[in-house]
Amino acid sequence: MGKKRLILITNDDGFEARGYRRLINLMRQYGDVIAISSVESMSAMSHAITMKVPLRTRLVRKEDGLVEYVTNGTPVDNVKMGKHLFLDRMPDLVVSGINHGSNAAINIIYSGTVAAALEAAIDHIPAIGFSVNEYGADIEMTHVDEYVKKITEKVIKEGLPEGIALNVNFPKYSAEPIKGIKVVRQAKATWRETYEERTDPYGQKYYWMGGVFLDGDGRPDTDEKALAENYVAVVPVKIDFTAHEWIEKMNFDD
Amino acid sequence: MGKKRLILITNDDGFEARGYRRLINLMRQYGDVIAISSVESMSAMSHAITMKVPLRTRLVRKEDGLVEYVTNGTPVDNVKMGKHLFLDRMPDLVVSGINHGSNAAINIIYSGTVAAALEAAIDHIPAIGFSVNEYGADIEMTHVDEYVKKITEKVIKEGLPEGIALNVNFPKYSAEPIKGIKVVRQAKATWRETYEERTDPYGQKYYWMGGVFLDGDGRPDTDEKALAENYVAVVPVKIDFTAHEWIEKMNFDD
Question: Which of A89, B122, B172, B183 sits between 20 and 30 A of A189, alpha carbons compared?
């Protein structure tokens, strides 16, 4: 690739997903694109990396301004391979998505989409994870283009602080236009899991996980609240699990 | 199970791992134990959950004070199944490990061990992830027992703040005794990945990921620093990716 801006794109819904194809098309106006995704869906793979089986890659497209690979890796594997296997320099921007389903609130920790953006942030590459708050292969996404472009252009122009990525969640499509963008915090909202027991044709029991989403966070400045009010929710995110406020208060010497 | 203290144990090295068996034995003195682990290693599975294949479980042991299951799930699946499938009440304590290998610094985000503890913290269950800073199936662990007990007893006695878990890393075994416990922050230290290319017997290329660990964090109060000085590193951790300090500074309206 030449000296144009270099944009790495991945997702966690597999390389055929509507949101991923849409994101690739939207990003080509901003530079050369390398798109790396998995053959199968990698939903809920979080920041997992592949260690038990070898990684396989396949070049599926190479045309002016776009190189596309498919792999058996997770979203984080795909960013790592982009950085250290496919490219001879770091990309200028990493974008992930557009995910079919919310990555707001607690969903962020299960999300391969946001994990991919955070993986880029480790190397101080500006990175954005995009998600739409609606599940399904055929969800409507026309309403997000304007905001994908607006946020991407701002990040291209101004960069992001070191180690910071953006977790961007769009409201599901509705007749009402999106009201705007809010920069907010991750809501304290969680899932309560349920397990459906079934019996296979061989008489063995197995389980499918399900759950209900519980938003118990009443604060006005959360991603969940912004989505509910038809705003785009932008959360600046970083990899630091430390609960800094508790370091000084804990003492194991006594 | 009765009304004794109920302790859920999991890990990410598989149910036969030395560190896991050791942790189960250590915990039985504190209450009734339910141990749930995977048949295979789940290293580097992060906070992944199983959605593409059904979950399978098998009861492998039931004796006074100990019930043990093996599953095909990730560490987070195992905690979720403990909470919502196997038990009719929340456990009083969740402990994970003892992991063979460090979960300090950036390793925390790949770690199934710490993810399991964080998964418990979502429901405000006191939880601890234990890891030793040495890889290998047969590593020496006798030096950690005293500190596993000390930290566990303190958590049992005093609890933990809501939503907070402990990421505990032990130095590798050495002739020098451990110097004590330090409560510290997650170091800014990362991996630089490498990919080893091989060719399979059928002529197809594949890759194994490797890497070198780069500790560029010079601060004195990090987990890496504590381990290097032969201290136990305790980091209070929580699930909140928000970079709070940047919320006010970002504005997408202009």
Answer: B183
The closest CB to that of B85, out of A115, A184, A195, belongs to A195
pLDDT at residue B1 greater than cutoff 80: no
Task: Give the pLDDT score at B253.
Answer: 77
**Can you tell me the distance from the alpha carbon of B226 to that of A218, in angstroms, rounded to the nearest whole number?**
39
What is the percent of chain B where pLDDT is above 70?
98
Which domain CATH number covers A74? 3.40.1210.10
Q: How far apart are CA A89 and CA A2, in angstroms?
A: 11
Three-state DSSP at B114 gives: helix
Cβ contact A6:A35 at 8 Å: no
Q: B11 by DSSP, 3-state: which?
A: coil
Mean pLDDT of B140-151: 97
Instruction: Give the global pTM.
Output: 0.95
- How far apart are the C-alpha atoms of B15 and A15, rounded to whole Å? 35
In a domain, B198, yes or no: no
Chains A, B: CB contacts under 8 A, how many?
Answer: 202
What whole-number distance in Å separates Cα of residue A48 and Cα of residue B74?
Answer: 11
Does the CB of B115 have a partner CB in chain A at under 8 Å?
yes
> Does A148 contact chain B (CB < 8 Å)?
no
The rounded distance, in Å, linking the Cα atoms of B115 and B86 is 19
Chain A interface, best mutation among B47, B55, B70, B71, by max A CB count within 10 A: B47
Number of domains making up chain A: 1
ipTM: 0.93
Instruction: Please list the alpha-helical segments (H only) found in chain A.
Output: 18-27, 75-81, 107-110, 112-122, 145-158, 223-228, 244-247
**B50: pLDDT strictly greater than 60:** yes
All residue ranges of chain A with pLDDT < 70 are 1-2, 254
User: What pLDDT, on a 0 to 100 scale, did the predictor assign at position A182?
Assistant: 97
A161 located within any domain: yes
Residue at A209 is within a domain = no
**Which residues constitute the domain of residue A111?**
6-187+220-247
Q: Rounded distance, CA A67 to CA B13, Å?
A: 37
